Amino acid sequence: MNVLVSGSKGFIGSALVAKLTSDGHTVHPLVRADSSKGPADQSSTSSAPGSGSPARAILDVAGRRIDASALPGGSLSGIDVVFHLSGEPITPWRWSPAKRERIRSSRVVTTDIVARAVAATPEQPTLIAASAIGYYGSRGDEMLDEQSPSGSGTLADICRAWEAATKPASDAGARVVHVRTGVVLGPGGGSLKIQLPLFKAGLGGRLGSGQQWTSWISLDDEVGALIHAARDKSISGPCNATAPNPARNSEFTAALAALVHRPAVFAVPRAALDLLMGGETTSEVICASQRVQPSVLEQSGYVFAHPDLGDALAAAV
């Protein structure tokens, strides 16, 4: 396949690019234009002639367009799949109004630009668009799958707008998949980048009551799910990228502590989390309870490399 990937330098995107490249696909990065440069000065985001590197496309947010002139054929016509993964990280924890707006606009605005570019392409590529299980809000012990309604809160509102921004592409007839990702467990990034040093130091412990559900997925399976969604034409619309065995926070804590051979006797009270992280972040990220099932992946025949938490943590650590 010829593939275009935004967020190709991120935690998930870099792993996806490595897997696609090793499997023999041609990957073209979709990089955001540097706002400090003029439209004609994009040399740092273009492949040098004869370098052997795949050509890049430019996501020009200010101009609300994609510059695909450097791609083969000068357009998206030769692209089979667009993976749109970029977005402002939801950390650091406490959200200022400016941070909250960056989280939203970096997803919604860029997705609208990508979707309109896909819609305008005669031979439309498949659009695999990132989303998140924040779509469901915090739902306690309720079992959630792709048919479950959206929840409430800032992240649920953002996810609804994020997914709705793909409408120009789907209205034009393109196949669009919204990959609703859970907590990704992998080396060097994601939540473990913060948690692992604490647990290795013997400072790990449950958060709040510890009864909240964590819907996780290994980095290998996140990449596998993205590629599976791209290749299986029966999949469209929402697709949960979570392992089939979510865990309570207390179970997750115990498993990670056991893996690094350290005790996990500490518990961080909810009030302390509210004070340190902010009430909104605590409610929607730290102590959110989301018990999500990957029904679409399972029904389409995807086989998880790491269906069990212990195996996924071992692979990540």
Walk me through what this model shows:
This protein has a single domain, classed as Rossmann fold, CATH 3.40.50.720. 36% of the residues lie in helices and 19% in strands. The two termini are 32 Å apart. It has an eight-stranded mixed β-sheet, sandwiched between helices. Strands 7-16 form a two-stranded parallel sheet. With 317 residues, it is of the alpha/beta class. It has eleven helices and 16 strands. The longest helix has 23 residues, at 97-119. Helix 7 (249-259) packs across helix 11 (309-316). Residues 35-51 have low confidence and may be disordered.
Strand count, sense and barrel status of the largest sheet are: 8 strands, mixed
In what range is the share of β-strand residues? Answer: 15-25%
Global outline: globular
* Helix and strand run: EHEEEEHEEHHEEHEEEHEEHEHHEHH
As residue ranges, the low-confidence spans are 35-51
Looking at the overall shape, the CATH architecture is 3-Layer(aba) Sandwich
| CATH classification, class level | Alpha Beta
DSSP helix fraction: 25-40%
Mean pLDDT: 92
Number of extended strands:
16
Helices, by number, come to 11
Query: Order of strands across the biggest sheet?
Result: 4-3-2-1-5-6-8-13
